[in-house]
Design brief:
The complex is a heterodimer of chains A (504) and B (645). Chain A has 21 helices and 2 strands. Chain A is mainly alpha-helical and 504 residues long. A two-stranded antiparallel ribbon of chain A has the order 1-2. In chain A, α12 packs across α18 and α16 packs antiparallel against α19. Chain A starts with a helix and ends with a helix. In chain B, the strands form 2 sheets. Chain B has a two-stranded antiparallel ribbon. In chain B, β1 and β2 form a beta hairpin. Chain B is globular and about 90 Å long. Classes of the chains: A mainly alpha (504), B mainly alpha (645). At the A-B interface, α1, α2, β1, α5 and α12 of A face β1, β2, α6, α7 and α25 of B.
Chain lengths: 504, 645
């Protein structure tokens, strides 16, 4: 048997968390270093498998499979394909950077980092599990640390951190509640089709595709609600700006960067594949909600004065693109959807980490109270501008090609309707540049003259995420070849079913 | 040998300044002298390569009709080959048009960088400036050689970014910050149109390679309807409207003068702002296929030329006058394209690059010396700054269309082409613009360089690094037009769309009348601003036509209209949406929450308190971990890379 690389990637942060339990809580440096080491191991191994994944063969690779609950057909099934591997990479990039973005935490750092590591593991688990039960298990693991972290280490601005944490958690739980009902129903029906219980993605896809049109439609509706509220689909998005604003930096980074991508990932890898006819039925609705989200949240971001709210609304807007792209149900659109999740993750994480540092130093996120910081903290400003420019989809940065791909997909599928969505790029430019202008440019304020620029470990998020941002933009095939190798077979699978369904 | 190499590796031309950008950012930033040397010499090497490639192109007339096209990088390929795919190759398209541009951009950039060494001396952002300018040159040169529309769009946004960064270079000034933002957002609005056009093209024709599009659009009926093609042409044209400062999206360009002067010369006069014209020139086959689109291009261009000239006659800041003059000249280039003369448009782009860059650099020298941008506060500079002043006068003669200076030949070519195409109204507008151009430019010259010296000014000539570029560009502005004299038109022999222009035909009538108009303009300026030392007449005229004067002085209030739209309509709707979000969407959520709390009161007994729940989750997590460990334990010990594969 080959080296079980995925379990190791998954458990390295947990191992670090376990070690942290035995470190005295005053040893702040050691605590942080162990946490960083744990995430680094995962990141390193993920990079190794990313570049060793055989794209010509495609499909699930680095498989580890063990029976777990026989009666329910649950197996510990870990594997990656061209869609999940970029997500795992994203998780580990952001996870690693989140540790450094939290470098200055002084309030109970040990507990903080243990929870953070559990959070990272939970998110990662959802992307490598190819068994629906395990997927849900990890998904639920994610919820609790987030709530605790927001309530203890968060900040209260427009809303209190308790409200923010509660809103975040309840939304996730309600979403997952609907999802759970959908999954259980699908599972029960699949037993009828397959003759034996099996929770693996492939088996459920085989069974789901054979369900009647009607079944697929209502099951998909449940999943759409569940995954949709997770990816902040309009109008189930309002947890997102408040939640990010209340959360500590690392949680905002992970939540906006990867956690909400579980929604898009689940839509593609679970809902669409298992219930293609349902997807076809709901696609126009998804497109409308996605486009509404893009435009609505872009305007929402424009009205904000708190930096975290700007990015919060902006991420709702960007996720709108993912939803429309999924609604295309074609190769180009699906490629764009996955790539955009990756690209937005990197961008949002960089943005939140820079805002986090700004907030640490100036104790404000209120734009009218800032200005001219580009002179006082040039490196911080460079990171901020990089994120802002990525947010508006500047060519040469990782976000452009995914957006362009999505535009090709939605424009050919939805024509005039898509134009409203694409127009979002104007508003995005407006709020992204406005945020930069009011924060970094203009006359420097004397009260910030003493501020120190980011340095040492604080530079890690800028260097790592900035590097990915630029390299992914200059060489988009690094990302797209991988994603394409996962999307093409997936699309073949659903289009087979759709053609059959059309004949029924 | 070397020429062949340069032609087949033309991507080196943008790559070299891109390298200098990287080296400056990561290595030489703290060492200003080294940075300057590196930046200028890399630019010069790039210019050398560009000249070689251009030389090769102009030695092979075959390329005038069949461009040399090759790909150098497979940028993106996704989808199912043959069925539903998206393939983007980065490539090079070399023909006389791009070769000319390649040479012009790298040449002007080299000398402007040399000029900047003196101009930016002592600025805290010295190295940053050179890194941005190098990045700009790289993007602009990539834009020029692009063989693919998306590649071009990437470079297009790249130059836009550099323009943004350089306009906002003095970012501590609110005016610079706002001007930079305005430039980016205005261009973004237009790029939205261009992007839709590009999307439409790729969806309709399945490719973005310019030459392939050319073939397919020549028989577009197989792919799409006439109406759709018209729409696509209009969408594509929206991009150039902002980038090349056409009415009504020209508003950002005069504000862009907030940047350092070399930037105004390089980006906002000679190179980047002509990118829009260049894009239309590249996509000429698309516009040519739909006459309605051609007319739109012609009318937009003609109107812009006149409109901007009308504003320029009352402005008081030297760089603003030059900026509106640029807008006006860009209008000429667009007009030429609209009447179907690629030759005239590219010719004017070529001559304009020299004389306008020259005038901006000279203006920079002046501002450097007298510390005011206001032409009314200058005067008599010619005595103290002879090189600067005389080179500026050369530029003034060129732009006014006085033979034998470069601008005369190219402007004449445009007016003749307009007349020949039967657009008599546009010809009249163009001719009147020529009169206005001579007037406002000589108004500037008489006010700033001649007349009485102002005692508060102590001008002095600039260092050699600033004077050499002035002289070089002045030579270009003098002889640059000899390529396209009507009786020996080499230009038309090389750069044309469709059939080459008939050489040898000289439209004497048009030529003489345009010279007469130019002389009249200069004479009027002389009467009002030099002979009349107290400028009484000029003031009287302004008072007599108060309404028109104010209209022109306030730029027809276009900026105010946009500002109102942005602040009232856009920000207003943003506010509205936000309020809707926190009161309606959130209101419903909170309402549901309240309802749940009420019903939950009865069930509170079941709530166990939170700590145990957390503990339970932890327990589950640990359980999962343990089980995993049990299965993978033995092999996990061998953490070797070989095992991964």
């Amino acid at each position: 048997m080959s080296f079980p690389v995925l379990p190791v990637i998954l458990l390295a942060p947990v191992a670090a968390a376990v070690v942290l339990l035995f470190i005295p809580k005053e040893e702040h440096r050691l605590i942080k270093s162990v946490a960083a080491l744990g995430t680094f191991v995962s990141l390193f191994l993920t990079l190794v498998i990313y570049f060793n994944y055989n794209q010509d063969v495609g499909g699930l690779q680095f498989v580890t499979q063990r029976d777990w609950i026989k009666d329910l057909g649950v197996t510990l099934f870990f594997a990656v394909d061209g869609i999940s591997l970029p997500m795992v990479l994203l998780t580990n990039l952001i996870g690693f950077c989140a540790i450094f973005a939290s470098w200055n935490i002084s309030n109970r750092p040990r507990e903080f980092f243990i929870l953070l590591l559990i959070l990272i593991t939970g998110v990662m688990g959802t992307f490598i599990a190819h068994d629906l039960f395990i997927f849900l298990l990890f998904y639920e693991v994610v919820v609790i640390p987030i709530y605790i972290m927001v309530v203890i280490w968060g900040s209260s601005k427009r809303v209190t951190k308790e409200y923010a944490g509660m809103k975040l958690t309840i939304y996730l739980l309600i979403g997952s509640g609907f999802l759970l009902v959908g999954v259980i129903a699908l599972f029960v029906k699949s037993v009828g089709v397959l003759g034996a219980p099996d929770m693996s993605f492939s088996a459920l896809a085989e069974a789901g595709a054979q369900l009647s049109n009607f079944d697929q439609i209502w099951l998909f509706a449940l999943m759409l609600f569940g995954f949709g509220s997770l990816i902040s689909m309009w109008p189930f998005h309002s947890w997102s700006p408040d939640g990010y604003a209340g959360a500590p930096t690392a949680v905002s980074m992970i939540h906006a960067g990867v956690l909400k991508k579980i929604g898009g990932y689940g839509l593609i890898k679970i809902a669409v594949v298992m219930l293609p006819l349902g997807a076809q039925f709901w696609a126009p609705w998804m497109a409308v909600l996605g486009i509404a989200g893009v435009a609505y949240a872009a305007f929402g971001a424009l009205a904000q004065k708190d930096l975290k709210y700007v990015v919060g609304y902006s991420s709702v807007s960007h996720m709108g693109y993912v939803i429309i792209a999924v609604a295309c149900l074609d190769v180009i659109g699906l490629n764009g959807a996955v790539a955009n999740m990756f690209a937005h993750g990197i961008m949002a994480a960089l943005f939140f980490s820079m805002i986090g540092f700004l907030y640490e130093k100036t104790h404000t996120r209120w734009m009218p109270d800032m200005g001219g910081l580009g002179r006082q903290t040039p490196k911080l400003a460079a990171g901020f501008m990089l994120a802002a420019l990525a947010s508006l989809g500047l060519p040469g940065l990782v976000t452009f090609v995914p957006e362009f791909t999505i535009f090709v997909g939605i424009f050919s599928k939805y024509g005039g309707l898509a134009v409203i969505g694409i127009a979002g790029i104007i508003i995005t430019a407006l709020y992204a540049l406005r945020a930069g202008a009011h924060t970094l440019f203009g006359p420097p304020r004397p009260e910030y003259d003493h501020l120190e620029d980011i340095k040492g470990p604080e530079l890690v998020p800028l260097v790592v995420l900035g590097f990915v941002l630029v390299v992914g933009g200059v060489l988009p095939s690094l990302l797209f070849d991988m994603i394409n190798s996962g999307v093409v077979p997936l699309h073949a699978e659903i289009s087979n079913v759709l053609q059959l369904g059309g004949n029924l | 040998m070397l020429v062949e190499f340069a032609m087949h590796h033309a991507w080196l031309v943008p790559l070299i300044p891109a390298l200098s950008f990287l080296i400056i950012v990561f290595l030489t930033r703290p060492f200003e002298k080294l940075t300057a040397f590196l930046s200028v010499s890399f630019m010069a090497i790039s210019c050398f390569f560009a000249s070689l490639a251009a030389y090769g192109v102009f030695n092979n007339h075959e390329l005038a009709e069949h461009p040399l096209v090759y790909n150098f990088f497979n940028w993106l390929s996704i989808g199912i080959p043959g069925a539903n795919e998206l393939q983007i190759n980065l490539g090079v398209q070399l023909d006389p048009t791009s070769a000319m541009m390649l040479f012009m951009v790298s040449f002007v950039a080299t000398f402007i960088q040399l000029y900047s060494v003196g101009y930016m001396k002592g600025d805290p952002g010295f190295s940053t400036f050179f890194s941005y300018v190098s990045l700009f040159a790289a993007s602009m040169l990539l834009l020029v050689i692009s063989s693919n529309l998306l590649e071009m769009f990437v470079a297009w946004e790249g130059v836009g970014l550099c323009s943004y960064l350089l306009i906002g270079f003095y970012s501590h000034k609110i005016s610079a910050r706002e001007a930079a933002k305005k430039a980016f957002v205005t261009c973004r609005v237009a790029d939205f149109g261009l992007l839709l056009g590009i999307l439409g093209l790729v969806i309709t024709f399945g490719t973005l390679d310019i030459m392939e599009l050319n073939d397919k659009i020549n028989n577009f009926k197989e792919y799409t309807s006439y109406g759709t093609l018209t729409l696509l042409a209009v969408l594509v044209f929206i991009g150039p409207i902002a980038k090349s400062g056409q009415f009504p999206l020209h508003v950002w360009l005069p504000d862009a003068m907030e940047g350092p002067t070399p930037v105004s010369a390089l980006i906002h006069a000679a190179t980047m702002v002509v990118a829009g014209v260049y894009l239309v020139a590249r996509m000429m086959f698309l516009f040519d296929a739909v006459p309605a689109a051609m007319n739109m291009v012609a009318i937009t261009g003609g109107f812009t030329a006149l409109f901007a000239a009308l504003i320029a006659i009352t402005q008081t800041e030297i760089k603003r006058i030059l900026a509106y003059s640029t807008v006006s000249q860009l209008g000429y280039m667009m007009l030429a394209l609209g009447v179907g003369s690629l030759t005239a448009s590219m010719f004017h782009m070529w001559t304009h690059a020299f004389f306008k860059a020259l005038m901006f650099l000279a203006a920079g020298s002046v501002i450097h010396a007298v510390h005011t941008p206001n032409v009314w506060k200058m005067g008599g500079i010619v005595k103290k700054m002879p090189v600067t002043s005389w080179t500026f006068v050369v530029g003034g003669l060129a732009i006014s269309g006085i033979p034998p200076f470069a601008g005369f030949w190219s402007k004449d070519e445009i007016l003749v082409a307009t007349m020949n195409s039967g657009h008599y109204v546009l010809y009249a507008m163009g001719a009147f613009t020529a009169f206005l151009t001579a007037f406002y430019m000589w108004r500037l010259i008489f006010l700033a360089f001649y007349g009485k010296e102002k005692p508060e000014n102590h001008p002095h000539e600039s260092p050699w690094t600033m004077c050499v570029p002035l002289v070089v560009l002045a030579v270009g502005a003098t002889v640059g037009g000899f390529f396209g004299m009507p009786w020996n038109n080499m230009w038309a022999h090389w750069i044309f769309f469709g059939e080459p222009h008939h050489a040898g035909h000289v439209a004497w009538g048009a030529m003489i009348s345009s010279v007469a108009l130019a002389v009249a303009g200069i004479y009027l300026a002389y009467r009002l601003y030099l002979k009349d030392t107290e400028k009484v007449k000029a003031r009287q005229l302004a008072e007599k036509y108060q309404f028109w004067y104010q209209l022109s002085f306030n730029k027809f209030y276009i900026d105010e209209i946009f500002l109102w739209f942005n602040h009232t309509v856009v920000d207003g709707s943003a506010k509205l949406m936000y309020l809707f979000d926190i009161y309606v969407v959130d209101g419903i959520v909170n309402g549901l929450g309240g309802f749940a709390r009420l019903t939950g009161d009865g069930l509170r007994v079941l709530q166990t308190g939170s700590m145990q729940n957390y503990a339970l989750v932890f327990f589950l997590g640990v359980l999962a971990v343990t089980i995993l460990m049990a299965f993978t334990g033995p092999s996990a010990a061998g953490l070797v890379l070989g095992g991964v594969m």
